[in-house]
Automatic annotation (TrEMBL):
CDD domains assigned: CGS_like
Keyword check for ATP-binding: no
Protein name per Swiss-Prot or TrEMBL: O-succinylhomoserine sulfhydrylase
Quaternary structure and partners: Homotetramer.
UniProt KW keywords: Amino-acid biosynthesis, Methionine biosynthesis, Pyridoxal phosphate, Transferase
Source organism of this protein record: Exilibacterium tricleocarpae
A Pfam family matched in the record: Cys_Met_Meta_PP
Length: 398
């Protein structure tokens, strides 16, 4: 049992933790979480100031180090992911960068899934490489390739699951085992599922990273990121943040806290809408193929059932035809937003080959199955019937 049997959040469900974890009211007794818009803090005495600066006493010093609203967001995410601690950052990319800067040194090596977020690839390929950290990219679900790519210098395995845009599902437990056998850390970018649908730490991952910009906010309002893991690793990341500065603003932390309150409901609704739409698209003769792990025909379906609570809000599909057909489809929709973002209440539609994945070489596009007739939809929270009406406009334009 527990150290503190009185804690009503002990053993609580994700839905409860997402609403209540980490909140401590101030002397004002506020019900909603307070936003502490302050850059610095006042010390009660010179001795206390000295102790805090020396790290001998807890307490706030400066908001690049700690801020009560940001700390609450960190504690809530740590509770949701089942991690010891979390560190919030200015963006999802800042979370990935800060983790790498804190935990890697020149000469270290990373193995990364080929299908990760495009900017992550640029960060690893262009910037980490400049500082002597090399990355080998492997086909996401080729486990032998992951193992072959590991060298004595490998410190980190990095992946996203389900992948973007074709929803490949990676076996987190299997890669966690591989990471352990080679003394590496497994880092999972859990942006697409969020802890409401998938908890990588429970499956053996060492660190979880989020772009809070996406589903954690859920309404497209703020940019932010967070990393979750052991207290020891999070101390290292915090140390980097204090020195380098890509911290989360308290206002953004507050917006994310509001987003989290509906996380479980939203993820269930995104997933239900995506499932209905994936089935509807699958039955349309004008559609060549639908990629969604919720479909029993998807190669990752059984695995997704095991490691996810539901299948998430992102799906993609190939229209019969070429790039022009895909563009005609997209241009014929009237309700969906033509934008590369996802994780919003508003449904988005995009042509990966010429936008989010346009930087890939032809060979890499082929490998990742990003064909010219592929369209990605991140299903929002509008009525599914209205979204289907909109998709029918696309089909009529083919
Ligand atoms: C958007 C995104 C990121 C980057 O996050 P930002 O908040 O935009 O910096 C990283 N990983 C995934 C999977 C994303 O979708």
């Amino acid at each position: 049992m527990t150290d503190n049997p009185e804690d009503p959040l002990d053993q609580a469900d994700i839905a409860t933790l997402a609403i209540r974890a980490g909140h401590r009211r101030t002397h004002e007794g506020e019900h909603g979480e307070a936003i502490f818009t302050t850059s610095s803090y006042v010390f009660p005495s010179a001795a206390e100031a000295a102790a805090r600066f020396a790290g001998d006493a807890p307490g706030n010093v400066y908001s690049r180090y700690t801020n009560p609203t940001v700390r609450l967001f960190q504690e809530r995410i740590a509770a949701l992911e089942g991690g010891e601690a979390a560190v919030a950052t200015a963006s999802g990319m800042a979370a990935i960068l800060s983790t790498c800067m804190a935990l890697l040194s020149a000469g270290d090596h990373l193995v990364c899934a080929r299908s990760v977020f495009g900017t992550t690839t640029v960060l690893f390929n262009k910037y980490l490489r400049k500082f002597g950290v090399d990355t080998t990219f492997v086909d996401t679900t080729d486990y032998a390739a992951w193992e072959r790519a590991i060298t004595p210098a490998t410190r980190v395995l990095f992946l996203e699951t389900p992948s973007n845009p074709i929803c490949e599902v990676v076996d987190i437990a299997r890669l966690a085992e591989l990471a352990r056998a080679h003394n590496c850390l497994l880092i999972v970018d859990n942006c697409f599922c969020t802890p409401a649908l998938q908890q990588p730490l429970a499956l053996g991952a060492d660190l979880v990273i989020h772009s809070a910009t996406k589903y954690l906010d859920g309404q497209g309002r703020c940019v932010g990121g967070v990393v979750v893991g052991s207290a020891e690793h999070m101390d290292e990341v915090t140390g980097f943040l204090r020195s380098a500065g890509p911290t989360m603003s308290p206002f953004n932390a507050w917006v994310f806290l509001k987003g989290l309150e509906t996380l479980r409901l939203r993820m269930d609704a995104h997933s239900a809408g995506a499932m209905t739409i994936a089935e509807w698209l699958s039955a349309r003769p004008a559609i060549e193929k639908v990629y969604y792990a919720g479909l029993p025909s998807h190669p990752g379906h059984a695995l997704a059932r095991r490691q996810q609570r539901a299948f998430g809000g992102v799906l993609s599909f190939q229209v019969k035809g070429d790039r022009d057909a895909a563009w005609r489809f997209i241009d014929a929709t009237r309700l969906m937003s033509l934008t590369a973002n996802l994780g919003d209440a508003k449904t988005t539609i995009v042509h990966p080959a010429t936008t989010t994945h346009s930087r890939l070489s032809e060979q890499d596009k082929q490998r990742a199955q990003i064909t010219d007739n592929l369209i990605r939809v991140a299903v929002g929270l509008e009525a599914t019937a209205d979204l289907i009406t909109d998709l029918q406009r696309g089909i009529d334009a083919l």
